[in-house]
Amino acid sequence: MPVHSKLEKFEDNWQTSIGGWSLEGKVVLRGKDVFTELNEKPWMEYLLYAATGKESPKIARLMEAMWVICTSFPDPRIWNNRISALAGTARSTGVLAAAGSLAVTEATIYGLKPIKGATDFLYRAEARLDPRVRV
Questions:
Q1: φ and ψ of 87, to 5 deg
Q2: What's the Cα-to-Cα distance from 86 to each of 47, 96, 100, rounded to whole Å?
Q3: What is the residue extent of each domain of the chain?
């Protein structure tokens, strides 16, 4: 039997025990309607429920705090150090660690640059919406 014929039964029909979407527009995740039963949950609680099936606001807050501390630190000098440390932990070569650190040092998607751009956008948007505001 050719490999592709084994996969044909899954084409256009992805069966899962976690949930799914119906033509009526109902979306079910682990037996709960996403739009009515899970719509008020904060993102991390929703993600925890989706991944584990458990509902725990305390664990979700802990995960959120770890996420903020680990990924949202505003000091751009720390990111290149983390890349080098990760490369070292993975037993990568020193050259790859340095190259990865250097690449992220020049990136514009982390640290203070996006914050500055977002703040600038918000000021300009406010000025456009309210002509009394001067930028």
A1: -60, -40
A2: 25, 11, 10
A3: 14-71, 77-129
Rounded Cα–Cα distance for residues 61 and 69 (Å): 12
Asked whether the beta carbons of 118 and 108 are under 8 A apart, the reply is no
Which tens digit of pLDDT belongs to each residue from 39-88?
Answer: 999 999 999 999 999 999 999 999 888 887 776 666 666 777 888 888 88
Give the model confidence (pLDDT) of 100-130 as tens digits. Answer: 888 887 776 666 677 788 888 888 888 888 8
Q: For the purposes of burial, counting CB atoms within 10 Å of the CB of 36, is it exposed (0-12), middle (13-18) or buried (19 or more)?
A: exposed
pTM greater than 0.70? no
